[in-house]
Write a structure and sequence with these properties.
CATH topology of the largest domain: Beta Polymerase, domain 2
Strand order of the largest sheet: 2-1-3-7-6-5-4
Helix content: 55-70%
CATH class of the largest domain: Alpha Beta
Number of domains: 2
Structural class: alpha+beta
Distance between the termini: 66 Å
Radius of gyration: 35 Å
Order of helices and strands: HEEHEHHEEEEHHHHHHH
CATH architecture of the largest domain: 2-Layer Sandwich
Largest sheet: 7 strands, mixed
């Protein structure tokens, strides 16, 4: 758990830190945008108006920013600490008047999986998103909200649906990228060139990425399933089909990830088996050529004896030995080729 911020930390402005951005605000009423870009201190003023739904986004916030929003919405300090703490697990926590959840947005960059942490506070008519960096595109989230007319009817719950739906879609995109990488590794495994070092490097990186993605994707089932519980009343009953669709997608991400992990493990076993088979082929060829070379060695060794034999010290002896070498060597080559030893 993070320690309480000092006065020095509170005085720091978020814009001075890497990966931070100015806060973004928006208010809806009856499904239409009523205001946008208003100060964070006016969030409570908009919430006092009936039927108004407010969204606030904080990117790379400092303690001062969270202190303001904590006062505006009455957030618990434990939830605020979780929002600023890095590497929190994907989860959802239920408080008296709001819920806090933490999710991860994956992105495959150059073969490496990068995870961007996003936290959110959900009240009946407000959604506050807290991003650790600018890796999560909020413009895509706003575009998804603008395409739907249901915001005014279901309150902040529909804003949360848009957020989770986008997060799960990005997780599906990440799994698809890793699936494509698995296909490339499979092609390398069965390639005639068989680049062992590249296969080992890419397969290890792929397994590492799959483990990281599975670690943040599996808890999403619990998050969405908790939101679907009617006894907790976190979202309106009319939103249940929407969140059920997100839940189905989370199951798909988990099953797809597990399937890819099994595929990579099978590819590694196949690589070892193929490597052993290739070694056997090499040994078979080396042994065959050694047998062929052994024939002229034996013949020339025999004709190198210092005792009389047919053709000794005569030209006919050289001709006979040469014929024996050629006939035996060609015969062995034909036999080995016929048995697929060469």
């Amino acid at each position: 758990m993070a320690s309480h911020p000092s006065e020095t930390d509170i005085d720091q402005h978020p814009g001075n830190r890497i990966g931070s951005a100015p806060p973004r605000t928006r208010a809806w009423r009856d499904g239409k945008v009523q205001a946008e870009g208003f100060p964070v201190a006016e969030v409570s003023d908009y919430l006092e108006r009936p039927g108004v739904v407010v969204w606030l986004d904080l990117c790379g916030p400092g303690p001062a920013d969270l202190r303001v929003i904590s006062e505006e919405l009455g957030l618990d300090h434990l939830a605020v600490e979780d929002a600023v703490s890095r590497h929190e697990r994907a989860k959802i926590d239920r408080y008296d008047r709001y819920a806090f959840l933490n999710v991860y947005v994956p992105r495959v960059d150059g073969g490496d999986l990068v995870l961007h942490e996003v936290s959110a506070f959900l009240t009946e008519r407000a959604l506050v998103t807290v991003r650790q960096d600018c890796g999560f595109d909020v413009d895509a989230l706003i575009h998804r909200w603008d395409e739907s007319p249901d915001i005014g009817e279901t309150g902040a719950g529909f804003l949360l649906y848009g957020l989770l739906d986008l997060v799960v879609d990005l997780q599906l995109d990440a799994v698809q990228s890793l699936d494509d990488e698995a296909d490339e590794v499979e092609a390398l495994v069965f390639d005639d060139v068989f680049p062992v070092k590249e296969i080992q490097r890419r397969s290890y990186r792929l397994r590492k990425n799959l483990v990281a993605l599975r670690r943040v994707a599996l808890p999403m089932r619990e998050v969405v399933n908790t939101l679907l519980r009617r006894d907790l009343r976190l979202v309106a009953p009319s939103l249940a089909p929407y969140f059920q669709d997100v839940y189905d997608h989370t199951l798909r991400v988990g099953e797809w990830t597990d399937g890819l992990r099994d595929l990579v493990a099978n590819l590694l076993d196949t690589r070892l088996a193929l490597q052993g088979n290739r070694m056997n082929e090499v040994m078979k060829k080396v042994t065959s050529w050694a047998a062929i070379i052994a024939v002229p060695t034996a013949v020339t060794g025999f004709y190198g004896q210092n005792v009389p034999y047919p053709g000794f010290s005569e030209h006919d002896g050289f001709v006979v030995s040469t014929i024996v070498i050629i006939v035996c060597s060609v015969g062995l080559y034909v036999i080995f080729k016929w048995r697929d030893w060469l």
